Amino acid sequence: MRAVAPVDGGALLQYERGMEGTRWAWVGSEGAQKRDPPSPHLASSELLQWARRQRERMANQRRSDCEAEAARAMEGEDAAGASSDSEYEMYGECRYERATPAEWAEWAKGIGASGTSTCGERVLSLSLCSHRKFFAARLWPAARLMARYLEYNRSISSGRRVLEVGAGAGLPSIIAALVGADRVLITDVPDERMLQNTRKNVAQNVPPDFAWRVAVHGHDWAWPPMQLRTMLDAMLRESSPASPNSPKTTGLASTKDHAHIGFDLILLSDVMYELDHEALLKLISVCLVTAGRSTTSTARERKTLDERCGMPPPQVLLSFQPHDPVQLPRQLRFFELARGSPYYFDVSPLWATRAPKMFPRVDDMSEADDEQSQRVYLFSITRAANHEAANGSKAAYPSTPFELPPLGVWCARGDKEG
Known about the structure:
Elements: E1 3-7, E2 10-18, E3 21-28, H1 44-75, E4 88-97, H2 101-111, E5 123-131, H3 141-152, E6 161-165, H4 171-178, E7 183-188, H5 192-205, H6 208-211, E8 214-218, H7 226-237, E9 239-240, E10 243-247, E11 265-269, H8 277-287, H9 299-308, E12 315-320, H10 328-339, E13 345-354, H11 367-372, E14 375-383, E15 408-410, E16 416-417
Parallel strand pairs: 6-7, 6-11, 7-8, 11-12
Antiparallel strand pairs: 1-2, 2-3, 4-5, 9-10, 12-14, 13-14, 13-15, 15-16
């Protein structure tokens, strides 16, 4: 008898029930059965704890493998040590056409946005490279949608500190840099060849006057998220080309503020396929600033100050396409966890539109599932002003299923654009 109990990053598979009790095995998000099944006599809470330990063990193993591979590549070893070319997918270059001034003006008129300066070429050229274990060899529709939204809503990233997780080619981060972000930290799996490709894209598309604000680093989102704040701290302490003798510390009132460093905007594009919900939510909780950058006021006062200054609140932009609709309920679990304890985030739809299908249709896929796989969604995630304000009463949201919005565009104030 078999039964599956979903757990963060995978599932517990009940593979035998007999006189000695129930036996369990751990199945990761990639479907491979893991070793060391727990005792058949564990309670359900203990099973969950055991599953989380298994996920942490897998993340640490993945980290060790990636670090060893990067070290071999840096040492220039041959196929006997480093990864061979056959283990990488190279898709040459792809193009991204930015919004024309007329297109942006039409959008801005509809939502009452104000213009900001932008730079760079009208058409961006991005190289694509990915190890076969990962999925960075395409420019996914979710990344294109997020990039377009950042172009249309430039105040979200202009002058802000931006983090992208699982960046791949790095398109959303590049757009954020081009519209005037103060700092942009681009991260992906610590595979040196993939990271070098992302750095190449930054150098190719971001002018030198802005490129010094951008850094690319390897970081697995299952690693301790405080490492990302340490990277941002190092970026803020570096000198700008205009004033090489003085640290560039925009927005820092004093050195004491380094203890409160965080990101105003976090970009997550098509990262939900891993089903690593707890790791991503922990990363958001640690890295997203509460509100504002002052250390002398409460969170509520800082949020009020941001609103008075016309600044958007610190937020996460998350875009995803349900490539496998069978997994969609488990992917939507991310939003249910985000609204509940201990995170208490607000989740708001921003954009839902059609997108090209990225994988061939499975024979037994229904028409409804096939239609669902051709949609891409964009959400905004912000900290709730108080726990009860997180999309309902405190008792409601753990049991409230999350529903995807219909096709359409919503502006910042929550009204649907026609």
